[in-house]
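Thread: "does anyone have the structure for this chain?"

Original post by V.I.:
We have the sequence but no experimental structure in hand. Need at least a predicted one for the grant figures.
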Amino acid sequence: MKKATTFLLLLAMLVLPAVGFAASPWTEEATYGDKVSGKLQFGLTNTLLGWTDLFFEPIRASKKCESCDSLWTGLGKGLTDAIVNEVGGAIHLLTFPLVLDLPLPDNGVQFATCCGCGSTAKK
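Reply from O.Q.:
Generated one for you, tokens below.
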């Protein structure tokens, strides 16, 4: 009984935060083949490059992007996003034939320097 309760509690802790995230970009594709290839690419990108959020989130925070207003907030967000993107990307990669979505924060890895605005960031 304790094992079942623990399993359900862990499952709820993993699934419920994902409810607040937007759907992954590959879900908007029209055909099954496009969705599968999009999910495979999304999973591969986040698995291989998820660690880069350790650097990009503090940069965004130092430029006062979004709700991050300090370097320490960005560092914490970068650490958690890196772990979630790596694990979520691996799950996407392993389950790519199934068209089930596990949303990732900020739609996974983003490479813009500040809030998607690239080099035209406000100073």
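V.I.: this helps a lot. Confidence is low (pLDDT under 50) at residues 116-123.
O.Q.: and Residues 40 and 96 are 5 Å apart (CA to CA).
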